[in-house]
Amino acid sequence: MHKDYFEHIAGVYDGDAKRISNIDRIARAITENVEFDPEMHLMDFGAGTGLLLERIAPLVRKITAVDISKSMTAQLESKRELIECELEILQIDLVSSELSEKFDGVISSMTMHHVENIEAMFIKFYTQLREGGILAIADLDKEDGSFHRKDTGVYHQGFEREEMAQAAMQAGFRDVKVVDASVVEKEQGAYPVFLLAGRK
Questions:
Q1: What is the CATH code for 10-199?
Q2: Angle in degrees, CA 181, 108, 139, rounded to 5
Q3: Measuring CA to CA, how many Å separate 13 from each of 21, 72, 73, 134, 182?
């Protein structure tokens, strides 16, 4: 059994104005750097309460939300009627799970720093995508460890952009680019967020 690090905050997760502003900027960066079409079936890796996918939903046919947290996926389930596309919710650990489904794209926001082996995760994304499928991953720039005040199962204190790009390219992705996506403002400082985009 995995510990549900978000159990105590899931119910109020969507009420954080700074979190909402951050996800708005990330979603805008994704739509500006990735092309979607109405027939696409996406995977949202680390979907949580669905803050990212609900912003991308009007652009695609279906989104499969993948998250390890029971409490966060329960919050997403409670919002199902508000999501403007077909929605499938999978409460699984994608690191150790295989999905038979192939996707037209993988989107993700602020999840990769919870993944121990980044190189293996990019390979997993690559195998789960159809040829031509898109990748759009947003996460923190390298930081000093002050971003997370509480233990939420964090393996990385952000990332060097070039290392992330290299990991994606080594997994087989092409047209890889890394751009500014957002800045998270916290009491203890400002934390830049990047978007990595690519294609299988």
A1: 3.40.50.150
A2: 45
A3: 13, 9, 12, 28, 19
Residue 161 CB contacts under 8 Å (≥ 6 apart), including other chains:
141, 178, 194, 196
Write out the DSSP string of 59-101: GSSEEEEEES-HHHHHHHHHTGGG-SSEEEEEES-GGG---S-
CA-CA-CA-CA dihedral for 146, 24, 2, 6, to nearest 10: 70
* pTM of this structure: 0.91
Contact at 8 Å (CB) between 126 and 174?
A: no
Coil, strand or helix: which one is 44? strand
Q: What is the pLDDT of residues 125-184, one digit of tens each?
A: 999 999 999 999 999 999 988 888 766 778 899 999 999 999 999 999 999 999 999 999
